[in-house]
Amino acid sequence: MDTSERAHVVLTADDIHRAVRRIAHEIVERNHGLDGLVLVGMRTRGVPIAQRIANAIQEFEGQPVPVGALDINLYRDDIGSPDRAPHIQPTEMPTDIDGKTVVLVDDVLYTGRSIRAALDALTDFGRPAAIQLAVVVDRGHRELPIRPDYVGKNIPTARDEDVQVLLRETDGEDEVRIMKLVPEPER
Amino acid sequence: MTQEPALQIATPLDARTPWTRRHLLDLDELSRDEIETILETTDAMKEIMGREVPRVPALRGRTIVTLFYEASTRTRASFELAGKALGADVINVAAGGSSVEKGESLIDTVRTLEAIGAEVLVMRHPAAGAPYLVARHLSASVVNGGDGQHAHPTQALLDLYTMRAHIGDMRDKRVVIVGDIAHSRVVRSNIWGLAAMGAKVVVCGPPTLLPAGMRHGQQQTEEPLALPHVEVETNIDTALEGADVVMALRLQKERMHGGLIPSIREYATLYQITPERLARAKTGALVMHPGPINEGVEISPEVATSLQSVIEEQVTNGVAVRMAVLYLLARGKA
Fold it and tell me: What residues of chain B lie within 8 A of the CB of A86, using their CB?
């Protein structure tokens, strides 16, 4: 699908950089330090973002924060949908999460269904004291009672638009774009 | 800046063709890409098996039926465990004790199972090709859990997974399979899988236990086996030279009808994997056996329990591989 001409950039590499650093500061401020803090990135793009937040925290607090990677495919409620590639990867939990404050990290918050799956997955690993949510983009249209604690940018969107977060680690460049989806042919 | 070892981020996986197959009948129909997809999915399943409560809701509400017309411990049990770990309902039907004894045909039996909601049917049957027949008559997914002397794809997948975990890239690795080649469905599926991954396969056994068409020294063969090329050896010492993997097979006494080997003892003398023979393989070569082992026949006890042996690991990996297969097949059914 070639949609390049309809795409427009909503966050540049610098914007993303600043958003990540601000979120890092907010996480430390809100939790009064790093005690019991664990960052868990949701595969795929949540993982490099979580890693960047951890790097920023390390830089200004001088202490490392454990980072995990969560694959939610086995917890989805839309398992049979044919467009979803089933490629699943191992979940990596760096530490026991019982009694910890877990900050879930994802690129885009949309319907909230991925977060719902992530909450199920996390509870299979233990009973955190609290779970918070950090996202680079909140694009609205929630279908579940879920809200983010840390947001890079609120971007009002239409449902027929697609928000793409591109990252160096996965896509070779840092950028957030919105594009109009080409309407699918009638089925 | 000190940092924890980096988490695995890169994901070329999205670029890969998505899984679209409905059945798993043998590995000859799978591309290298598809085999890689199964093995990588197995990595994720292994992580689940390592959890305190190894259970995820991925196949909640789905029904898996195992239908076994032949004896089995590890295959049937590991499919059941795999299905349950994914949250599916698993029903086990053994041919003995079912309506098969009243004369119900194979097709009627599987149609009945489908009518009660089976979405994935795992079957083992003494007749080669039986799962193919069933697959043509069902809308359910069919997994071949072993058909006659033909194929046993999930065993070959777990063997590949185990090799890959220890060796990595299998290209040009020497995999020597020793023993009752003629009667082994495990060998056939392994040859397809190993060929797809680029390994060099050597089969070794007494001439009477090599299938027609595989003769020592012979460049084989398109016909009549239609298998990828393998090297054929009857001398075990030559075969083991430089091996990366040594896989011993069970002597299938139940499929031998008289006179193929002079005696079990003579077979053991000539073909048993002993520490002395194993010394010809590469240092640290993997020792494998699909089980069940005839103790002291195909493999000496000290080799079977040595550090080079990954026989127990094969069984553990069997559950994770079958989880991956069930997930990939059942996922497609909305």
Answer: 18-19, 41, 327-328, 331
Buried b (16+ CB within 10 A) or exposed e, B30-63: beeebbbbbbbbbbbbbbbbeeeebebbbbeebb
pLDDT digits (tens, 9 = 90+) for B236-264: 999 999 999 999 999 887 777 777 888 88
Domains of chain A: 13-77+89-157 (3.40.50.2020)
Residue B4: how many other CB atoms lie within 10 Å: 13
Predicted TM-score (pTM) of the model is 0.89
CB proximity B264 to A under 8 Å: no
d(CA B34, CA B21): 9
Q: Would an 8 Å CB–CB cutoff place A53 in contact with chain B?
A: no
Work out the minimum CA distance from A136 to partner chain B, whole angstroms.
Answer: 17
Write the CATH number of the domain with boundaries B19-152+316-331: 3.40.50.1370
pLDDT digits over A178-187, tens only?
Answer: 998 876 565 5
How far is residue B114's CA from residue B120's CA, in Å, rounded to a whole number?
9
Q: Do B56 and A124 touch (CB under 8 A)?
A: yes
ipTM of the complex: 0.83
Section A112-127 average pLDDT: 96
Q: Would you give the DSSP letter of residue B300?
A: -
The CATH number assigned to the domain with range B153-311 reads: 3.40.50.1370
Burial of residue A180 (number of CB atoms within 10 Å: 0-12, 13-18, 19+): middle
How many other C-beta atoms are found inside a 10 Å radius of the C-beta of residue A60? 11
Looking at the complex, does the CB of residue A130 fall below 8 Å from at least one CB of chain B? no
Query: Nearest-CA distance from A23 to chain B in Å?
Result: 19
Looking only at the bridges linking them, the beta strands covering A161-166 and A175-180 are: antiparallel
